[in-house]
Write a structure and sequence with these properties.
Strand content: 25-35%
Strand order of the largest sheet: 4-5-6-10-9-8-7
Largest sheet: 7 strands, antiparallel
Distance between the termini: 36 Å
Structural class: alpha+beta
Order of helices and strands: EHEEEHHEEHHHEEEEHHE
Amino acid sequence: MALAERPRHWGGAGRWLVVIAVSAIALSSCGPPAFDYLRDSSGRAMFRVPGQWTTFDQTALYRDQFPNSSFESARNATSGSWTVAFDASPTPSIKDLLGLTAYPTGFAKSRPATAAERTSLKTPAGLRNAVIPIDQQQKSNPDLVHVISSQNLKLSGGYRGVRVVFTIQEDPTAPGLEINQTAIVDPGIQNLYLLVIGCDQTCYANSGPAIQQVVGSWTVKES
């Protein structure tokens, strides 16, 4: 399964991850925050994850792919966009991201859209296939890829996107990976904003409320 935007293959992104930990509990007690609020360096994209989940910034993701790189070289190599990954497991690992895990994992990303992408991203189909070529894989392997839902999104300021939930298997006897993917573009299709979260189907069913909280918090707005 080809994951074009898998964290370990990202090359682009370079500013510091801004993490704002805010919660009503934290205001009234010394306990940990209920949520970590994360936003990209432009301030346009924001979402939240439960406070006990682990997050990985883009330099950590790059250095996982290129373990011999220095922090500075990783930061320089990932300049130009923003990425944060997350893992709900009590034993988190970058290598588990978007795998057949028993806990939700995923990533958020904002980056400039390439000139080659802009024509495709004008259409719902292009947005639906922005991360994983779902339509192509479903056509090639109809027994292995199942689209559960696909929703066109219209946001304020002319932003628009597609949210699709689907399952994918390596073979008919293998367990299924269930993924919730949102792709959004700005009015001029200058930037692409992605949120992808998933785990194995049993985990997805059991973690539905937490996954929906993360997905429902994903906001992209005008600066």
